[in-house]
Amino acid sequence: MKILVCIKQVPDMESRFKPSGDGLWFDETDLAWRMNEYDEYAVEQAVQLKEQLGNEPELTVLSIGPDRVVEAVKKALAMGADKAVHVQDPAAHQKDSWQIASIIAGYAKDKGFDLIFTGMQSQDRGSAQVGVLVAELLDIACATTLVGFSYSDGVVNVKRELEGGLKGLVTLQLPALVTCQLGLNVPRYPTLPNIMKAKKKEIEAIPVANLLSEQAVAPTAGFYPPARKGGGVVLEGDVADLAQKLVGILREKTTVVR
Amino acid sequence: MEATREIYWNIGHGVVLPMYLLVTAAVGLMGWGIWKRFNHWRQGKPLNRFDRFDERAKRMIAEVFGQERVFRVRDGGIFHAIFFWAFLTLFIGTLLVMVQADFMAPVLRTNILQGRFYEGFSLVLDLAGLAALLMLAGLFVRRFVIQPAGLEITDDDYRVHALLFAILISGFLIEGARMAATEMVTNRSLALFSPVGMLVAMTMANVSPDGLLLMHKVLWWLHFALVLGFIAALPYTKLKHILLVSANAFFAPLEEKGTIATINMEDEEAEQFGSATVADLTWKDRFDADACISCKRCQDRCPAYATDKPLSPMKLIKQIGEAAEAGQETSLVETIGEDAIWSCTTCRACQDICPANNEHVNKILEVRRNLTLMEGAFPGDEVRTAVGNLEVNGNPFGMAFAARADWAEGLQVARVNEGEQADILYFVGCYASFDKRNREVARSFVTICNAAGIRVGILGKDEKCCGEPARKLGNEYLYQMLAQENIETLKATGVTKIVTTCPHCFNTLSRDYRDLGLTIETEHYSTYLNRLIRDGKLTLAKGEAQDCTYHDSCYLGRYKDIVAEPRAVLNAAGWRVREMGKSGYDSFCCSAGGGRILAEEKLGSRINVARVKQAEATGVPVLVSNCPFCLTMFEDGIKTGGCEETLKVRDLAEIIVERIGGGA
Amino acid sequence: MKALLVCDYREGKLLDTTYELIAFADKLGVAKAAVLVGSEAAVPQFDGTVYLAEASALGEYNPAAHKAAILAAAEKEQPDYIVFCHSSYGWDMAPRVAAGLKAGQVTEVTALVDGGFEVGCCNAKMRRSIKPATAKTVLTIQAGAFTAVQPAGSATVVKLDIPADSKGVSFSGYEPAEAKGVDLTKAEVIVSAGRGVGKKDNIPLIAELAKALGGELGASRPVVDSGWVEHSHQVGTTGQTVSPKLYVACGISGAIQHLAGMKKSDFVVAINKDKDAPIGEVADVLVVADVLQFVPALTAQLQK
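Above: the input entities. Below: the structure tokens describing the complete assembly.
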């Protein structure tokens, strides 16, 4: 069996974001990087499936981006992936979901993957499109937002997380692609022997030009901080007045008070 | 009549050969018993505790004959120390008799045991015997009558007490019988130099001369048999501690306190990290289990044990022994229990007090290394999150690393990582950088230094966690990664002196980092300030005298012997320290060491509340500490313990910064 | 310009979020048509055409068939925008439709801006505007970002005949939500109690406010340690890390362990007597008042 897991390296969300010079994405200075949290669940599930099948399946991890993404790729290898593909692209952030999906599909189309795992969305862009688009381009079955996964005899049974704690039960025939939600499993902490083994695993580097053939269909027009009321409002005074004022603010600034 | 006595009186010189043969046999049996045990120890992994022979020997002699470790705990300690010296004296006395009888007399034809010397000899031995008997009685009462909590009584205890009583009492009876038949009749004035013997002899006044001779002979052989038994059975009774505890004083580590093995990450052959099974233990680990005499002093001082966690350092040592008996594949975690393993705060109270020089802490750390590095286990999800944060942002809070120097806004600090110059490099640490309460300490320290004309440099956002909590939880890999980055950054700055306000950073940079290549001198600010004050570079206005109690952080007091300097600094600022019962080397941990600052305390009762209550009991309004973990734990403990009205906790730096300025 | 609105339907019912789609289309100022895979009884109330495929035949979850239905409706209406709610249905279906139409997709639109559609990114810390480059654009809109219109009007229903082929994906039904300890990580509103609440007896005041805001009760560490609130409510590094849309911190000073657990919240209101409490550094609004006085007043105001 051949399994593919697609991961993205994203900045840690605690970082302070500033628009870059061209105003279309964030400046990379002073950012700490990590594997997209949703992708950690995808990698873990892929490794668990591999273990379930007696380690027979070959698990490939793929990521697109500049050289720094190799660190995230190594973590996936340390968690249990067998080999990696690094699509070298110093300008990955300039591509939209459609382009990213086409690059992945371009790589995957002739490899015969039985199952592809991705995270449901990325923490930085959050478009939640790439996984489903890859499935569409490869014309394979797909279900999103997994909080439950089980496999037996060529059939995948999943639980989709719906609103209000409800779950949808879906069965997929292979080949299939699934996108993973937080809480699907408990991503393992790589053991030291596995970290050391990962250092020797193959990372195939492919220049993005070899796989890119699409133009952007939803390009970013601007990237900017939200209009801030300057460090937070301080309200003082009569309690009843304050209550009224606050409800007004909540109505205006949030979607939870109707 | 001259002061001397006939050796082998009533026994005859014919006994000499069989006596030596029997003693040799007994010693041989003892040796064989030790040899068997030796094969058991040898199954452990190698460890070099035979280097620097002179230092080791010196330490062993000092500890064994000085009984310093035994003495430290008065309860039982004084009794044992005196008993030891008394028994030793008796032993030397017996040796002298042997030397006189079998060498001095036949070969040199002299008699040292005569005259004034013999008088002194007799008196000293009698008093020693009496002291031994009284001390043994005291120890007997302690163990069997008072029965201190946690002190187990085994069959071996009954047997050994009986044996020792029998040896001492039979010794006096022999002396009494001999004196009744000789000195009491012929040399009364000499008899006075054996007062106890004399008293015993007086009770035998009505025994017939033949009766005395018979009694003496029987008792002599009985006493001899008991001593042979003592020797031959030594490896199988608790008396083996005579050899093993003494040896452990020799084998005790010579490295700085707190030294842990630095795993070689380049070793591609390494398959096992940390201790999973008995096979991973060293011979010393097995030896420690045998050297342990179950005195429970470690257990008495363990903050985890005191608050109902499943950890007992004594039990841990014994369990390792039992596991070693069970076989090489025996799992250590299953034997000891994962909760017990994670409960340790590495406060070192156990190791500090252990009279047998057992090494408890590193055994626990090696098991933790296996749990973390081989199994990816954590004591809780919150620790996992914190470790993930350390990996991504270099601090356990998950705060953006770029914000690490925000605390210094508005203060005069040099950005050494950007090439600015400074007199000292202040390694701030995660808590002082990010935690609001602890930022006051960082700000106070910088202010104090500036007042003393010292330019303080910081690494800013290039500083990362020193890695200590990760290391103590077993994550050697993450620790080394963080350490390498810090060391590279530090070396690149060219600074020659590092000062830190955190004892954990202090221990790690001054000691642990040396294995990874950092040689820059590192100091804790309490000794640094003490010197500034002493050298007149920092003057403090004494102001109104204030009362406080001072908490000795484990990583300053027990680990680094820094006990006097912080008190000196407080006194220089006009503060009076009222000590808690558990202070100095006896200090009671705040609970956050051993990486536990990252973990939630879920078992038993709260260690920090226990310590806060101890502080409150002194009646002073202020508790002073100088560690960010202690400060955090005590702020929390004061709230949880409901002491907000009665006690405030402040860091030493906050106290001192208030008193900067000239004046008396 | 025209928008084709894709309605959410579950367990035999139309979901109310449909009326947010209508509001969005109105804001965009475009003509509207709708498509629903559901039942005739569930057709939304609005003046326009609703293309209907039977969920009883196709299944409530059948991506291939639903995609075919939506594409069929799009074929007929030729909309410029195909709009979904950003729901578990919408984010699953939208990219499929976008791929089918070779249309660009903009996900979780929160506002219309000059130059395109605005979405949040980087954990809602930043904003991005996107100008679609294709003739048709697929959009998903953030729940609650566009206030729903009142249902009004009656639709013209056009039935679609869609083959039930599910192409390897089959839906076996729903699993109901379990009743378990509080899971704050999925809460949209959390109202947390801190030491400033004073004592255990005052916790109900905070719980009342949480209820009035439709949210969950949270707590800071000392409050849980003191036994005023059960542990599963704890927010912070040793409790739960949360990211609600609204976080109200009542009498919480803001120790770093607590901040670390809630600073991902979209909007933070702090109520504290102390103007300089550290929580103020992450609060969008700091109400300087006594918790015990302000919270009841706020609850009353919300219940009006």
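Note for the figure: The longest strand of chain A covers residues 141-152.
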